[in-house]
Write a structure and sequence with these properties.
Residues 249-264 have a biased composition (Basic and acidic residues). The chain is an alpha/beta fold and 572 residues long. It has helices at residues 14-21, 55-68, 89-102, 135-144, 163-166, 174-180, 196-199, 218-223, 228-234, 276-283, 293-298, 330-341, 356-362, 366-386, 531-539, 541-549, and strands spanning 4-6, 28-29, 38-39, 43-45, 78-84, 119-124, 184-192, 244-248, 288-290, 305-308, 348-354, 392-398, 401-402, 404-406, 409-410, 422-423, 445-450, 465-466, 493-494, 497-500, 506-507, 511-516, 526-528. The chain folds into 2 domains: 79-403 and 513-567, Alkaline Phosphatase, subunit A (3-Layer(aba) Sandwich), CATH 3.40.720; 425-504, no CATH class. The strands form 7 sheets. Strands 9-10-8-7-11-5-12-22-6-23 form a 10-stranded mixed beta sheet, with helices on both faces. Strands 14-17-20 form a 3-stranded mixed beta sheet.
């Protein structure tokens, strides 16, 4: 039998930790003076990394850490998870300053809405097969409690294009769990509703790119895999499916024979002649299908809402039409989702993604990345205002980082998107624009790689680059561009990048977790990303009771065994 290690609760004495290591996981620890039940330490097998990291091991490991942190003391009725896609700590810091400077402040002293939350932690984001992760594998860790491979949507680790292998590897998500437990569920995103992060709440495929049936390889179709858009409809096998689903991606749900209702020159992408929006309306005769802001506001009393506001991703906040028939903001979608979900007396779970933070960073465009982060902050504040701290657990996190740098020695209050005005090094006297060793000014923000490389490309000439720039070829460039006459605060300016890439890459460092509400006290320390799932299910009695009903809990009521999706499907 392999030896075991114990994930201890923080703050316990060394002697107590030693004692806990010998306590069987089936025994309960006496209630605390406050009357909150505490549980015994959970044994987790010692394994060889990474080969010994099975799905069951990941699940138990996350459960042990969450329980040791006290998540089982949570009494949340509702859970809202905000996911800032690609929202690195650098992105948060820079957005905080931009938000403050827009308010007329120096900026550094400002706080985004979630930075006022009482609990914080760090999340380790790697995938099972990659140090620097993607959004599919990371969000699957958050939604299922297990880490998996890059590109995976709701399945345990395997091969990205192996449909047959993945069919037996579906992992239950906490939205499906909530649906099975009779709670209302919601998904809100500014990306396509079939994109990696939202898809990981309801779909199960080894390859995140299989968004509509035209994306499925012939062998995957023959082996029985289903595209992500179609799975949104079949997700009702656990209950009723998402009560609210809002985002972009109309084209993934409509056929190539259908013209888009908003853009006369666009059609759907499905090749099976299915109109999934019509099928959704048939399955939800009292529900509302909407595709603009006016329709969303008019659907306030509908029991279910499907909103698809663009054929592709929704527009960046900076580019969004503000007229009544345009797109709703992320804050407006947040308020609409909470309004609909809160009518369910059993409670709800809701995932809200600020997706385009990631896209702007990939484009090397700090302005839009920070602007999208500020829009997410407004959405988080809208949720705080619309809910009670007594019954709603709110978490804010990111799936992964990016290569955005915040450097130089700018003076206090220097425009965060501007050139460094102050010192070029720690030893310099503060002055006018700081200069590099070539005598050229430089910006506070830059990217380690991406399309902002100053060499000439097949798209733009040598020198500073402008949004949107996605070159297929680039020429080498000597030195840096002269930014003296360049407005680096222009929304379309691309920050300089050291390594030329068509799309800037993700970063591998930790990201933040911020939490408020019942169960939030457990959110502390540096945790594996899959532990976020366990924070949620352990802090929500209705979720953990449903898991216990499926015989996945230990004697203390902690869900420690990997659940089988079939055990949570509703009777047909």
């Amino acid at each position: 039998m392999r030896p075991a290690f114990v994930v201890p609760a923080l703050g316990l004495s060394l002697s107590l930790l030693t004692a806990c290591a010998s306590v069987p996981s089936t025994s309960a620890v006496a209630s605390s003076a406050a009357g909150k039940a505490r549980v015994a330490a959970i044994d987790v097998p010692v394994v060889q990394h990474p080969d010994g990291e099975s799905p069951a091991w990941w699940y138990r490991n996350g459960a042990a850490r969450a329980a040791a942190n006290g998540a089982m003391q949570g009494r949340a009725k509702n859970v809202i998870l905000f996911l800032g896609d690609g929202m690195s700590l650098t992105t948060v810091a820079a957005a905080r300053i931009l938000d403050g400077q827009r308010k007329g402040q120096s900026g550094e002293e400002n706080q985004l809405s979630w930075e006022r939350f009482p609990q914080t932690a760090l999340s380790k984001t790697y995938n099972t097969d990659s140090q620097t992760p993607d959004s599919a594998g990371t969000m699957t860790a958050i939604t299922t409690g297990i880490k998996t491979h890059m590109g995976a949507i709701g399945v345990t680790a395997g091969q990205r294009n192996d449909c047959a292998d993945s069919l037996g590897k579906a992992a239950l998500t906490w939205l499906e769990l909530a649906d099975s437990a009779g709670m209302a569920t919601g998904v809100v995103t500014t990306a396509r509703l079939t994109h990696a992060t939202p898809a990981a709440t309801y779909a199960h495929v080894p390859n995140r790119d299989w968004e509509n049936n035209a994306d499925l390889p012939a062998n995957a179709v023959a082996e029985g895999c289903q595209d992500i858009a179609a799975q949104l409809l079949t997700s009702s096998r656990f209950g009723r499916g998402p009560t609210v689903a809002l985002g972009g991606g109309r084209r993934e749900f409509t056929s190539a024979q259908q013209r888009d209702p908003e853009y006369d020159d666009k059609v759907g992408q499905r090749l099976d002649e299915r109109d999934l929006t019509a099928e959704w309306r048939q399955a939800h005769p009292q529900g509302a299908y909407v595709w603009n802001r006016t329709q969303l506001l008019a659907a306030a009393e509908a029991p279910q809402v499907l909103g698809l506001f663009e054929p592709d991703h929704m527009q960046f906040e900076h580019d969004r039409r503000r007229d009544p028939s345009g797109e709703p903001s992320l804050a407006e979608m947040t308020r609409a989702a909470i309004h609909t979900l809160s009518r369910k007396p059993e409670g709800y779970v809701l995932m809200i993604e600020g997706a385009r933070i990631d896209h702007a960073n990939h484009y090397g465009n700090a302005f839009r990345a920070l602007d999208e982060t500020i829009a997410l902050s407004q959405a988080v504040q809208a949720a705080v205002d619309a809910t009670s701290r007594e019954d709603t657990l709110i978490l804010v996190t990111a799936d992964h980082s990016h290569s955005l740098n915040f450097v130089g020695y700018p003076v206090r209050g220097n425009p965060i998107l501007g050139k460094v005005r102050g010192q070029g090094s720690e030893d310099d006297m503060p002055g006018d624009l700081a200069r590099d060793q070539l005598g050229l000014p430089f910006t506070t923000l830059s990217y380690a790689n991406g399309p902002g490389y100053p060499g000439a490309s097949n798209r733009q000439p040598a020198g500073p680059k402008k949004f949107l720039h996605a070159p297929s070829s680039v020429e080498a460039h000597d030195g840096r561009p002269d930014l003296n006459a360049v407005d680096t605060e222009d929304p379309d300016y691309l920050q300089e990048a050291m390594v030329p890439l068509k799309s800037e890459s993700h970063g591998g460092e930790d990201v933040g977790i911020w939490a408020i509400g019942p169960g939030s006290d457990a959110v502390r320390g540096t945790v594996e990303q899959n532990t976020i799932y366990h924070f949620i299910v352990q802090a929500t009695p209705r979720l953990r009771e449903r898991l216990c009903a499926a015989q996945t809990c230990n004697a203390d009521g902690v869900p420690v065994e990997l659940p089988k999706p079939a055990d949570f499907e509703r009777a047909r």
